Amino acid sequence: MYRPNRSAIDDPSLLRHAMSEIGFGALVTPHGEGIGITHLPWIVREAEGRTVLEGHVARANGHWRLAGMQSVVIFQGPQAYVSPSFYPSKAEHGKVVPTWAYITVHAHGVFEAFNGGEELHAHLTALTDLHEVGRAEPWAVSDAPVPYLAALKRGIVGLRFVPTRVEGKWKVNQHRSAEDRRGTYEGLMGAGEQGVDLAQALASFPETE
Predict the structure, then answer these.
(1) C-alpha to C-alpha distance for 119 and 112, rounded to whole angstroms
(2) Region of residue 168 (phi > 0: left; psi between -120 and 50: alpha; otherwise: beta)
(3) Which pLDDT does position 209 carry in this prediction?
(4) Which residues, including other chains, have CB under 8 Å from residue 1's CB and lie 6 or more apart?
(5) What tens digit of pLDDT does each residue of 39-56 get?
(6) 172-205, pLDDT tens digit by residue?
(7) Pick the CATH number of 8-77+100-173 from 3.40.50.80, 2.30.110.10, 2.60.40.10, 3.40.630.30
(8) In this predicted structure, what is the pLDDT of residue 82?
(9) How distant, in Å, are the alpha carbons of 22, 75, 102, 132 from that of 162?
(10) Are the C-beta atoms of 78 and 103 separated by less than 8 Å?
(11) Alpha helices, DSSP H only, in 66-145?
(12) In this structure, are residues 80 and 188 in contact, taking their beta carbons and an 8 Å threshold?
């Protein structure tokens, strides 16, 4: 991934946090007949110092048969348009153009498939609990009839992905002057929820001249 202008993020803890917060990524696997692409939710965790991603696909989705092949999971985070009007430097020299701010994480490696009943049950329970927490009446896997769940589990295959390399890119104008950074921050703060997330990411970078 092209990562100029101090945009590279390689801290494992920060990347795990970003992937977990985004929660949804595209599994991309080149193969002899083309490129397999599947969009799915992931559980992101740390195990023995390594990042582990877990998801599942429909058994009818042949992507799981590509287990063991080099792949990448792409997590696309918040993104927003950046107007030249955000920059104080526009009034000084006018040498500014629009750009796009975004956060993305790429996890490279291979995945394995699993379909054991207990493993799938643990995976589905963890995924459900992750997204139901905080609800007034959270739904649990145990709320569904056992025969119904058994039938559904026969129709899916679990995926476990242990990346060998994870790289992130935070493109939030952190390379610009202090004045233009402040203008970008203020502009993004008014650009909706994703803009606020990007503004906060920009604020985390130390200012340099």
Answers:
(1) 13
(2) beta
(3) 56
(4) 104, 106, 167, 169
(5) 999 999 999 889 999 999
(6) 999 988 999 999 999 999 999 999 999 999 999 8
(7) 2.30.110.10
(8) 95
(9) 18, 15, 25, 25
(10) yes
(11) 89-92, 117-132
(12) yes
